[in-house]
Design goal:
Elements: E1 7-9, E2 16-18, E3 26-29, H1 37-43, E4 45-47, E5 53-55
Antiparallel strand pairs: 1-2, 1-3, 4-5
Length: 91
């Protein structure tokens, strides 16, 4: 897919905005430049009948991130109190 105008990404890299938008952070494509198929699918882009590139209103599916269980603490338990020997007095 070729861009018909400058297209920008917002900071979250999920929304495509036009040139001059205050949220624009990273240039996605310049006029006449191609946009990779992976980016088209990831962002949900489509071309209208007149060739204008737009982002679909439905957010693209993002994979659900599963939380990993926290690993157990493998360090040796520290003694609660350390007994200290008294120093021997030098005579």
């Amino acid at each position: 897919m070729k861009a018909d105008r400058r297209l920008w990404l917002t900071r979250d890299l999920e929304t495509v905005v036009d040139d001059g938008d205050a949220r624009a952070a990273i240039l996605l494509a310049a006029p006449g430049r191609g946009i990779s198929e992976t980016e088209v699918k990831r962002l949900g882009l489509r071309a209208d009948s007149d060739g204008r590139v737009t982002q679909s209103t439905a957010a693209p599916e993002t994979p659900e991130v599963k939380e990993r269980p926290r690993p157990e603490d493998k360090q040796r338990k520290k003694p609660t109190t350390k007994s200290r020997r008294k120093r021997a007095k030098k005579v």
